[in-house]
Structures are given as structure tokens and as C-alpha cells.
Amino acid sequence: MTKYAFYPGCSLETGGIEYGMSSHAVAEALGIELLEVPDWNCCGASSAHMTDHLLSLALPARILALAETLPVDEIVAPCAACHARFAAVEYELGRDEELKQKVNSLLERPYTGKVKLRYYLDIFSNSETLAEIEKKVKKPLKGLKVACYYGCLFVKPPKIVNFVDDPEDPQSMDNIIRALGAEPVQWPYKTECCGASLGVTLEDHCTKLCNDILRFARDSGADCIAAACPLCQANLDMRQVTVEKKYGVSYRMPIPFFTQLIGLALGLDPKTLGFPKLFVDPVSMLKKVGVA
Amino acid sequence: MGEVNLSQVMDRNRSFVDRVIEESGQDIRQCYQCAKCSGGCPGSSAMDYPPNQIIRMLMLGMKEEVLKSHTIWVCMGCNTCTTRCIRDIQVAAVMDTLRQEAVRAGYVDKAKLVLSFNESFLWTVRTFGRLFEPGMAMINNLKTGNFMKDMQFGLPLMLKGKASMFPHRIKGRREMKKIFEKVQGGK
Ligand code: SF4
Ligand code: SF4
Ligand code: SF4
Ligand code: SF4
Questions:
Q1: Which one of A200, A236, A245 makes the best mutation probe of the B interface by having the most chain B beta carbons within 10 Å?
Q2: Separation in Å, CA of A113 to nearest CA in chain B
Q3: Range of the domain at B172
């Protein structure tokens, strides 16, 4: 059984609750063990990053140090913002012993770097797990067209996030979608930023970026956009009504997490996978694959 | 931008440019002004100066213009510029440094909302160990005097069972407090 330390981050318990639900259900079905980091704290996200450099490293370093108490070699974070913070710790503390000691002097348990960060999509898209998924597909998602949306912080900058895929035209999620029997569409907005961080301060611009993404997905013929990050997902899902109002359009584009799609194809119950938690009603999409 | 005597400005603000280079760890003098960073920037249409111009202005020592710009607060840190730069400059890291410099130098007019958001966010993290959104929203609204902000999302989240009513308090709260006190000088 493959084991990973799992860092849910704050949003998997609130706005992205269905990402957590579907992740655990799918992992169990595939024989992957996700061990939650004990007593984890918030990674501080961009707020810490903008406030104080040391703080922005110490908060995620505490989490990585706690992950070192688990019987694992690798840690995954399904949230792109958390992933980016962990990547920054690995990158900066890995190259600067003095900085590492400075950060460790703030922590009760020192961070050694023993547990390595792994890209969340990759624990499903590696060739072994992909073969396992193909074997276990019960309800192929025939005819479903999916726009894979990777989010920017998972893939950029590749040197720091240690991304194993192409940052401009990644394929990991596309390969998963294909293994499920669905069809990934070709579209240019796979890794464009959705502007979630401007939601509070410059909402208009955020709405514009969301509109661009939704429009391109629709024009590429997608039935849904599959998300890999709870922040991107919340932004495209919850804000969609606002976008539609402002631009006088109607997308009604469901924004499921890729883990929810894996679950559907494995024949798991849509409720267990958290489909009713989505804001934009996914019923059209579920009907298309014959589960509603 | 008006007329400026470049060589004078450059001398006066030399130390500033050097500091930006040092803090960000990015040697912006390597910039070719190819503007590839700006071409892919999702924020550029809302910025007063596109990213490549900010780099150029820095080189010219235009400290005030840069620190007062909208650009640094529109930047979302998406790292597209960093990914595409032909000279391996982490432009997004330069933006990080500029935001910190702007706050340090008191140019916070355009950043009030960002800063109050960050403070409210970090207050809940410092206190509970994790983000507590209702608490953050409340403090943020008190700080900005905008009581309806984000109410549009509060109710729908609640109806979907996606809002936590009570904060989760982690065990390591004392450690969290210590981290915050040490980095911010007990603020
Ligand atoms: S990205 Fe946001 S929500 Fe996710 S853990 Fe980090 S701070 Fe908390
Ligand atoms: S796409 Fe949006 S939410 Fe996702 S990582 Fe980028 S900015 Fe954050
Ligand atoms: S992409 Fe790099 S070299 Fe080109 S203008 Fe931007 S910072 Fe300069
Ligand atoms: S990090 Fe900032 S400057 Fe760079 S492309 Fe993204 S929004 Fe533009």
C-alpha cells in the first residue's frame, strides 16, 4: 500500500469540503493511504508571504516537521497555495543552512527535509496508479468532455515547485481524464491564473479572469471544468453567478474536482463524492454519464 | 511620468535598487526588456505599468513611482512572468519585495484592503492555529468599515454546509504564538 502524508489545509474543511470527501473515497478505492498530518496549522498562504519572509517559511515548516513523525517519505497538499508554500520551504531551506537553522529556532520540532513534497495530481497520474485506475473503472465517463484546469501555483515556477509536467501545457490531469473514458479538451487556459487573490481587493478584475476561463472552456466544447485546487474551484464555482450577471452570459458550467470524476468512474456514489456540495448544479453532467 | 534628470535620480536611489536586488535575490540588471513577462501577465490590463516597465523603472532608480504604483498590488503572484523570463529573473519575487518595501516606506494607500485582509487572516491563524473564515471576515469588516463585504458568499456557504461555525483550535497554539511573536517582535 502506498502511503503519503496528507495536508488538507483549511479549505478542505470548508469551501473545498467535497475535495476532501472525494480524495479520501478515491484513495481508499485505489489502495492509497492518506495520513493526515497531526495537529497541523494553516500554512499562512499569501498573507504570511506578504507580511514577513521568516513567518512565511516557519508556518509551513512546522507542518513539514510534523509530517516527519509519520511513517512516510512524501507529503501531498491538494491546495495549490499550500503546495507553493511547502515548495518554497524545500527550495529555500534546502539551499541555505543558516536560514534553516533560523527557521528551526522558531519551531518546537525541527524540520529536517526528510519528507519530500509530491505534486498531488502525480499520486494519481503516475503510470502505476493510472493502470490501477484503468483496471478499476466500472462506469467509463463516455462522451464527457472535460477542460482540465491545473491552477497556476501548482505548476509555476517549475524550478521551485518541482513540477514534473509541462508548466504551459501540462498533461497529468488530462491523462487521468482519459483513463476514466472521458475526453480532455484542448484549451489554452489550463494554467492561467484565476485571480482568486484579488477577490477581496479588485473584484472586477477577478471576475474578468474567471470569465475568460469559463468562456474558453465553453468554446472548447467542455461539459465541465475539472479543478485540482480548492481555491480555483471555489472561485470558478461560487463566483460564476456574479460573472454571468456582469457579462450577461449563461455558462452553468459545473466545476467538479478531478477526484470527484475519478470516483464517478470507479462507480462510487455521487453523494459520497460530495457532488451535492457544488454550487453550479452538476446534474447535466451527471446525466451525460448516466449517474443521475 | 513628467521630465526627470535621470543621472541624478539614479544616484539618489542607487541604494534602493541595490536593496531590492539583495532582498529579492534577483539580479534585475540582467533584464533584456523583452517584455515576455508582461505579455503573459494576467494582471497587466489592470496595472498602471506592466511588469517589464517596473523592472526598467527600478533600473532607472524611480523608487517613488514604483512603490506608489498600482501594479505591485494588482500582481497576483501567479509566477507566469518568472516561468517565462528568458533571463531567469524571478519577476514575481521582485514584486514580493516591492510590496514589502512599499509597506516599509509607508506607501500603503492602494494597499489598505490587502493589508487589512492579511492582518485579519493572520490574526485567526495566530489565535487558533488555523484559518477561521467567519472570524476573519468579522475583523476585516470592522477594520475596513465595510460590513457587507463578502456577505454574498457567507450565506450560500452555510447552506451548503461549507462554513465552520466555530474555530478549530490546534494543540500547538503556544508554539504558534511564539512563532508570531519572534518574527514580528511581539507585535
Ligand atoms: S492555502 Fe489557505 S487555506 Fe490552504 S492551508 Fe494554506 S492558508 Fe490555509
Ligand atoms: S488559479 Fe487562482 S486559485 Fe488557483 S492557484 Fe492560481 S490564483 Fe490560486
Ligand atoms: S521577461 Fe525577463 S528579461 Fe524579459 S522583460 Fe521581463 S524581466 Fe526582463
Ligand atoms: S506574478 Fe504578478 S507580475 Fe508576474 S505574471 Fe503573475 S500577476 Fe503578472
A1: A200
A2: 19
A3: 111-184
Last residue of a domain, one of B107, B123, B148: B107
From CA B13, how far away is CA B19, in angstroms rounded?
A: 10
Question: Which helix (DSSP H) or strand (DSSP E) does residue B100 occupy?
Answer: helix B91-104
DSSP class of residue A220 equals T
Going by alpha carbons, the residue nearest to atom 5 of ligand 4 is B41
- Chosen for mutation from A7, A21, A41 (greatest number of chain B CBs closer than 10 Å) is A41
Q: Per residue of chain B (187 residues), give pLDDT as tens.
A: 456 566 656 556 678 899 999 999 999 999 999 999 999 999 999 999 999 999 999 999 899 999 999 999 999 989 999 999 999 999 999 999 999 899 888 888 777 878 888 888 888 899 889 888 777 777 777 666 654 555 567 777 877 887 777 788 999 999 999 999 998 754 4
Distance separating alpha carbons of residues A243 and B55, to the nearest angstrom: 33
CA of A274 to the centre of ligand 3 (A): 44
Burial of A136 (0-12, 13-18, 19+ CB in 10 A): middle
Domain boundary among B60, B77, B107: B107
3-state DSSP assignment of residue A33: strand
Q: Are residues B17 and B71 in the same domain?
A: yes
Residue with grid cell 539614479, as numbered in its chain: B10
Residues B24 and B97 in one domain: yes
Do B69 and B129 sit in the same domain of this protein? Answer: no
Residues B31, B116, single domain; the answer is: no
Which residue's alpha carbon is at the smallest distance from atom 4 of ligand 1? A9
Predicted interface score ipTM higher than 0.95: no
Q: B76 and A62: CB-CB below 8 Å?
A: no
Domain count across chain B: 2
Are the beta carbons of A242 and B152 separated by less than 8 Å?
A: yes
Q: For the whole model, what pTM was predicted?
A: 0.90
Contact B74 A47 (CB under 8 A): no
* Inter-chain residue contact A39 with B125, CB threshold 8 Å: no
Q: Is the CB of B29 under 6 A from ligand 3?
A: no
Half-sphere exposure of A6 (CA within 13 A, CB side): 17
B90 and B126 in a single domain? The answer is no
Q: Among candidates A154, A11, A156, which has minimal Cα distance to B85? A: A156
Coil, strand, or helix at residue A276? helix
Q: Do residues B100 and B116 share a domain? A: no
In a domain, residue B1? The reply is no
Q: How many CB pairs under 8 A join A and B?
A: 139
Domains annotated on chain A, with CATH: 2-118 (1.20.1050.140), 138-288 (3.40.50.11810)
Nearest-Cα distance to chain B for A131, in Å, is 32
B81 and B147, same domain (yes or no)? no
